């Protein structure tokens, strides 16, 4: 079970604007933060959270090739809203909302630091 995912950022204020908007759409807010160092979003008694932090070693933040964080949406409409919110808050498009196979509906985007995310919803059993 994943407790939380941490993504590096070179600009915590910019990351905060991006993730505050994403978190608000998902019905959560900031759950922990150390000003100027990190911010974590989610619910203390909820599922996995997400955090943005300046790298502890002081080196520039970078993205992992093949690394992606998946955000579980309520429905296809929320997938589309999350994609639009991401783009409106400095993110970039990596794949418009739409079906991906028989049971998966998703949209892909990157945050302003280049970290890849998706919003998804499972749409039913095969053949439905």
From TrEMBL:
Lineage: Bacteria, Pseudomonadati, Pseudomonadota, Alphaproteobacteria, Sphingomonadales
Pfam families attached to this UniProt entry: Glyoxalase
Superkingdom in the source lineage: Bacteria
InterPro entries reported in the protein's UniProt record: Glyas_Bleomycin-R_OHBP_Dase, Glyas_Fos-R_dOase_dom, VOC_core
Protein name: Glyoxalase-like domain protein
């Amino acid at each position: 079970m994943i407790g939380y995912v941490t993504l590096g950022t070179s600009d915590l204020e910019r990351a905060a604007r991006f993730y505050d908007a994403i978190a608000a759409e998902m019905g959560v807010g900031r759950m922990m933060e150390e000003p100027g160092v990190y911010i974590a979003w989610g619910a203390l008694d909820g599922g996995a959270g997400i955090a943005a932090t300046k790298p502890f070693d002081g080196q520039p933040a970078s993205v992992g090739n093949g690394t992606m964080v998946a955000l579980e949406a309520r429905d296809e409409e929320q997938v589309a809203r999350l994609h639009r919110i991401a783009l409106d808050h400095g993110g970039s498009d990596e794949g418009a909302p739409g079906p991906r196979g028989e049971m998966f509906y998703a949209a892909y985007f990157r945050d302003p630091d280049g970290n890849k995310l998706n919003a998804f919803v499972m749409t039913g059993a095969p053949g439905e």
